[in-house]
Prior knowledge:
Elements: H1 4-9, H2 12-32, H3 41-49
Helix pairs in contact: 2-3
Amino acid sequence: MLDFDLFMKIEQEDRNKIVFDKLVEExxxxxxxxxxxxxxxxxxxxxxxx
Length: 50
């Protein structure tokens, strides 16, 4: 979840960074719950974070 009050107080660049950091942190955990055929989670995570 994102903090609405915080987002109202900060600049757009900071908002972008927070959203990106949250995605990098949480997306692999969400994807890991599902089994996708021919999907390499490790490779995806490495690409996503680099």
